[in-house]
Amino acid sequence: MTTLNWKTSTRSNEGNCVEVATPTPTVMVRDSKDRQGPALAFSAGQWVNFVQGTKAGKFDA
Fold first, then answer.
1. What is the pTM for the complete model shown?
2. HSE-up (13 A, CA, CB side) for residue 43
3. Whole-angstrom Cα distance, residue 49 to residue 26?
């Protein structure tokens, strides 16, 4: 895979966050504390659904 441009949320604190890269048409997600570790791949539609669900509180405990 080519070099990806990973982005971390500006709300991330002390590296306890995920990073996202968006090589079209895939969205890649990885743990910011383990940058050499595995990354998950999602379709753009799956990522949009996840973000919308998060904003709507679907995953709140």
1. 0.74
2. 3
3. 14
- pLDDT bin (cut points 50, 70, 90) of residue 43 is very high
Sheet with 18-21, strands from edge to edge, namely 7-8, 18-21, 26-31, 39-43
For 11, list phi and psi in degrees, rounded to 5: -90, 0
> How many other C-beta atoms lie within 10 A of the C-beta of residue 19?
20
Cβ atoms of 21 and 7 closer than 8 Å: yes
- Asked if residue 20 lies in contact with residue 5, where contact means CB atoms within 8 angstroms, the answer is no
